[in-house]
Amino acid sequence: MNKTLETNRTLKTLGIRSCKLDDECAMSISKALKINKGLEELRLKRNKIDDKGAESIREPLKSNSTIRVLNLRWNSISAREKKILEQILNVEVRV
Known about the structure:
Helices cover 41% and strands 9% of the residues.
């Protein structure tokens, strides 16, 4: 999936729900976000991502201005990390 996400310029929304994605998966998605500048919505709700995974997703978002929606609901992400993500994206982050 990582290579596909890196090279796909037409995908606007990626939703991976209830698939037990963990921090390692989040790190893989993070690597792709460094390259992909077309994705607008990233929805990863009901997985097993915690602050470490959210932090890895956070880093490429500092330079990726296309992401408008980040949904990390029903993961194990702290209010502190949520606030940091919201500040970077300048949008509401759902956790």
